[in-house]
Amino acid sequence: MEISELVNCLDREGKLLTAAAESAGSGAEVPTCPGWQVRNLLRHTGMVHRWAAAYVTAGHNAYHPDEGEPDLDGDALLGWFREGHALLVAALSEAPKDLECWTFLPAPSPLAFWARRQAHETAVHRADAESALGAGLSPLRPEFAVDGIDELLRAFHAREKSRVRTEVPRVVRVRATDAGDVWTVRLSPDGPPQAERTEEGSADCELSGPAEKLYLALWNRLPLSAITLSGDAELAQLWREKSPVTWS
Length: 248
Known about the structure:
Shape: globular
Structural class: alpha+beta
Number of strands: 5
Order of helices and strands: HHHHHEEEEHEH
Largest sheet: 5 strands, mixed
C-alpha cells in the first residue's frame, strides 16, 4: 500500500479506537487481551504512538527506549491518547520520503515501515477496544488486511525470535478468499517460519476466509471458528499458542 494510504488508515483506526474506548469506559475489560482493561489498552497504544513518532521526528538511527506509560485515567487519559495519535499522524504525513531512522522489520523505506507498522498496530488495538465495547467490529478494507497478513507472516515471524516452530517440517497455507492472495508458510524446528506469496506444493493445514477475518484471526483477535480450517487442526492451534507478539 502507498504510504499516504497507510497514514489515512492509521488516522481512521486511531479515531475509531478512541471512540470505542470512550464509550466502553476505561474500566471495561478487554476480552481479546486477558487481564487488560481499556485504560491499559490506551496507555500501551498511546505510548507506542509517541515512541514511533520520536523516530520519525528526531531521526533516531538506533533503538531508543520508550518513555513509559502515563499514570492517567478517564478523560485525561483519552486526551493524552488523542494528542499522541494526532502527533504520530502529523509526523508521518509531514516526514520527508528519504527519512532515515531505525526500524526493526524489512520495508521499502523507514517512512514506509513506520506508516505500515503503526497503521496495523492501531488497527489491531482498535479491534481490542471494540471488543471491550461489545458492539461488533468496524470493517477493514481487504487490501489493508492483506498488507497486515503479509507483514505478520513475512516480517514479524521471519525474525529469529518467532516461537512458531514444529518438531518436524510442516506447511501451512493461508488463503484470502476475497482478495485472491495466498501465502505458503513453512515451519520447522530449525528456524523461524518461512512464508512466501505462493500456493505451490502441498500443505498440511489451510486457513482460509475473507482477508479481514484472516487478519484478525492470525493476530488472535478472532477465534479460529471465524475462518475455514482444513487439514491438521493442531497446526492452527500451535499458531494461536506460539504466535502472539509482545512488547519488549
